[in-house]
Amino acid sequence: xxxxxxxxxxxxxxxxxxxxxxxxxxxxxxxxxxxxxxxxxxxxxxxxxxxxxxxxxxxxxxxxxxxxxxxxxxxxxxxxxxxxxxxxxxxxxxxxxxxxxxxxxxxxxxxxxxxxxxxxxxxxxxxxxxxxxxxxxxxxxxxxxxxxxxxxxxxxxxxxxxxxxxxxxxxxxxxxxxxxxxxxxxxxxxxxxxxxxxxxxxxxxxxxxxxxxxxxxxxxxxxxxxxxxx
Length: 230
What we know:
Layout: H1 8-32, E1 38-41, E2 47-52, E3 54-55, E4 65-68, E5 72-77, E6 87-93, E7 98-99, H2 106-120, E8 128-139, E9 150-160, E10 163-175, E11 181-190, E12 200-201, E13 206-208, E14 211-221
Antiparallel strand pairs: 1-5, 1-14, 2-4, 2-14, 3-13, 4-7, 5-6, 6-8, 8-9, 9-10, 10-11, 11-14, 12-13
C-alpha cells in the first residue's frame, strides 16, 4: 500500500516565506518612520543673538549688551505635508559668543567678553550650548504672513551652563526655492534657571537683569557647508 509523503517540509517552507515577508514589511515601515531627510545648518548664513539688559540704581553707568553666536551648527528635518515629523538640533560653541555692543571701544568689549566667559558662562566647564527638539506642532497663520510661511511651536530641551531645561518656542519656517529653509524665532530666558548668576557690581547698584532675550534666524540647506563662523 502506497503511503502519503509527509507534508511538514511544505509547511516549513510556507512559514519561512511568511516570516521573510513580515521582515521586509517591518523594514519598510521602519524606514518610513525614520522621518524626513535632514538639512544642514549653514553657520555663516545663520544668526543667533542674545540681548542682556542693564539694571540697578546706577544703571546709567552700565551697558545693555548684544551678544552674537559665531559658531553655530546642526541640522533641521522638514516635512511640509506633516510638520510634526520634523525635528531640529543645533549646537553653539560657548566660547564663540562675541560681545558686539554698539558704541563701546575694543578694550571694554574685551573686558566684557572675558567676564562673560570666565565668571558668567564658565565656558571652560560648560563648552557648549545645545538645543534638541522633542515635539513639533503646527500653529495658526497670521494676517500678512508671506506666501509659503508656516508657523510652528517647537518644544525641546536647551542645555546651557550644564543645566537642561524644557521650553516651547514659537517659530516661523519659510522654504526657499532651492530646498533651503529659514527658521526664525525668539524666546526669553531666565539666567538663574540655568544656574547662572547675573552680573552685578558695586553692591548691586550696577547689574544686568535676570531675563535675557534670545532671537535667531537659522538657514538650513541640503548639503550646506558646515564651516564655522570666524
